[in-house]
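Final report, Chapter 2: Outcomes

The project's central promise was a pipeline that accepts a single protein chain and returns its three-dimensional structure in a standardized token representation, suitable for archiving and comparison. That pipeline is now operational. To close this chapter, we reproduce one record exactly as it appears in the project archive, with the input sequence first and the structure output second.
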Amino acid sequence: MTGVDLRKRRTPWLPAWVPKTGIELREAGMDFDAVRMPDRAGEDAMNILRRLTAYVPGPVLSEYGGRWFYFLVPPRTARNLTWPKWVTLCAPGEGETTYVGVPGLSGATGSLQWLTLPTAERPYVCAYLLERVVKEIKREAADLP
């Protein structure tokens, strides 16, 4: 799965938490929560979300060439939903703080890349839709715990 080719796009609408260049750490729960999934499950979720949202699912990041996927959902929503144990939440918990790297539109971003950008219409992935998709993936994937 390849990332967004930012060179072919005009400057898109972006929320203030997306840096212009490089990578910035953002505190989960402030600007967004992140739902983190491993390679195959993340790619499956991404493909389903794209189909269900006319290819505009909201902000999704990929790390290490598709090894990890981060679905950015509205702040303080991820912990209110039910997730399988292979999903990691980057969301505030009791007495803990979690940070997520957010790449800019240019500059060195290492192995972190945008798969889909936030838009004015979809500044976040719908957490409830993502939960439904993940539950469906779990039912279909016998090799996931």
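Archive annotation: Helices lie at 39-52, 127-140.
This record, like all others produced under the grant, will remain available to the consortium after the project formally closes.
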